[in-house]
Specification:
Elements: E1 4-7, H1 11-23, E2 27-33, H2 40-44, E3 47-52, H3 63-73, E4 77-79, H4 89-97, E5 101-102, H5 107-114, H6 116-125, H7 141-151, E6 155-163, E7 166-171, H8 174-192, E8 197-201, E9 207-216, E10 221-233, E11 236-242, H9 249-265, E12 269-279, E13 282-289, H10 296-303, H11 307-315, E14 332-339, E15 351-352, E16 355-357, E17 364-368, E18 375-376, E19 383-391, H12 394-407, E20 409-411, H13 417-423, H14 427-431, H15 438-446
Parallel strand pairs: 1-2, 1-4, 2-3, 4-5
Antiparallel strand pairs: 6-7, 6-8, 9-10, 9-12, 10-11, 11-14, 12-13, 14-19, 15-18, 16-20, 17-19
Helix pairs in contact: 4-5, 7-8
């Protein structure tokens, strides 16, 4: 086991990793920008190192500064959390060159699954069902038209290096295709430095279902069930739950076992998530995230496993300590992402937090680095906390969520808490009857 781990992240996920390290008896190093000098993970870590000014490119994305921090403090491993450098194969390679362990999959796996086209090819070869579409990148309009005619409209154009909904455009027919392709290419080039796009069939009312996997890099892997992440705004997840209200146990076992076998064949190391669109009883692979997910707590709630501790154990050389038969699922869990944003306009609301009161009680978990007097900086993502609740049934879970939201107080900045309170009164949400387009339609319909 490691003696000291550097946490190359900030906010709630840095604190989450720090807590897992503490419970394993591992010392921690926090890195931070000048804007995060007073952050909670910095206050609680055994050591801290300032790695640059506020801009992420000069601090949390500054590989040289992070490696230097490891060498200064003697950290043996780096946990990247999510975002920033968590899926950066070059970062993983550089750490390896410096004999520092990257807590995550191999750089080769990151590269394969980080390229959307190569990931799709790999998934297909591993027996994972994929969305019909182009076999590779599409650069010419004539090529795009052939694909559109072959798979049928509507189609969606996606950036091969994409993420967060950027470089994605829908064409409902051939006449819309040229503008959609050129716009997606331009957005992709601006956002990722890579203008390559590919084309897939655009499903009309799919759900977003993802399967959590855990592998040891030694040919063993298991699945930890699925999460339903269909409530999204601009392709960004807002609410996640496990299990999905749309699946039964047979469907869950079928897709989970299929994915686990694929990850074992890939010799995948650590945690990862295979994301699907699900429609009319069929699963279609869309991408793999080779890192810890924002929504990992809902899986922890229904399995009782600490995914961060499992990451650390595997990275330290331990083999997988569970067989698939050891994993049991209990109850239902829902996570709400609390952002420092206006709940109606989604305008960011950084600033000083005057007061905080977190809800509590049986089955309630808060992952947040907020405290009274903390000043939320304007330079980073607006996620400031996650409310995760557990119940024996989905109904009990929903009632506990409603109660918890009524107790949740954050003063001084605006938050998205009122949005979740509205959602809990909607019949479709209560019944679990929603798809990936539901939330945006709801917001458009109820906009003042």
């Amino acid at each position: 086991m490691f003696d000291k781990i550097l946490i190359a992240n900030r906010g709630e996920i840095a604190l989450r990793v720090l807590r897992a390290c503490r419970e394993l008896g591992i010392q921690t190093v926090a890195v931070h920008s000048t804007a995060d000098a007073d952050a909670m993970h910095v206050k609680l870590a055994d050591e801290s190192v300032c790695i640059g000014p506020p801009a992420a490119k000069d601090s949390y994305l500054n590989i040289a500064s992070i490696v230097a921090a490891c060498e200064i403090t003697g950290a043996e491993a780096v946990h990247p959390g999510y975002g920033f450098l968590s899926e950066n194969a070059k970062f993983a390679d550089i750490l390896t060159e410096h004999k520092i362990k990257f807590i995550g999959p191999s750089a080769a796996n990151i590269r394969t699954m980080g390229d959307k086209i190569e990931a799709k090819r790999t998934a297909k070869a591993l027996g994972i069902p994929v969305v019909p579409g182009s076999e590779g990148g599409v650069s010419e309009l004539s090529e795009a038209k052939k694909v559109g005619k072959s798979i049928g409209y509507p189609v969606i154009i996606k950036a091969t290096a994409g993420g967060g909904g950027r470089g994605m455009k829908v064409a409902n027919n051939e006449s819309e295709l040229e503008l959609a392709v050129s716009t997606a290419q331009s957005e992709a080039k601006a956002a990722f430095g890579n203008g390559e796009v590919y084309i897939e069939k655009y499903l009309q009312k799919p759900r977003h279902i993802e399967v959590q996997v855990l592998g040891d890099g030694q040919g063993r892997a298991i699945h930890l069930g699925e999460r339903d992440c269909s409530l999204q705004r601009r392709h960004q997840k807002v609410w996640e739950e496990a299990h999905s209200p749309a699946l039964n146990s047979a469907q869950r076992d079928s897709i989970g076992n299929r994915v686990a076998k694929a990850m074992a064949d890939l010799n995948y190391e650590g945690v990862g998530t295979i994301e699907f669109l699900y429609e009319d009883g069929e699963f279609y692979f869309i991408e793999m995230n080779t890192r810890l997910q924002v929504e990992h707590p809902v899986t922890e709630m229904i399995t009782g496993l600490d995914l961060v501790q499992e990451q650390i154990r595997i990275a330290s050389g331990s083999s997988l300590q569970y067989k698939q038969s050891d994993i049991t699922f209990s109850g239902h869990a829902i996570e709400c992402r609390i952002n420092a944003e206006n709940a109606a306009t989604f305008t960011p609301s950084p600033g000083r937090v005057d007061a905080v009161h977190f809800p509590g009680g049986l089955g309630v978990r808060i992952d947040s680095a907020l405290y009274s007097g903390y000043r939320i900086p304007p330079y980073y993502d607006s996620l400031i906390g996650k409310l995760i609740v557990f119940g024996k049934t989905r109904t009990e879970c929903m009632m506990r969520l409603k109660r918890s939201l009524s107790e949740f107080v954050i003063e001084g900045v605006e938050t998205t808490i009122p949005l979740f309170q509205r959602l809990l009164n909607e019949p479709d949400i209560i019944d679990g009857n929603y798809d990936i387009h539901w939330l945006e339609k709801f917001l458009a319909r109820t906009a003042k």
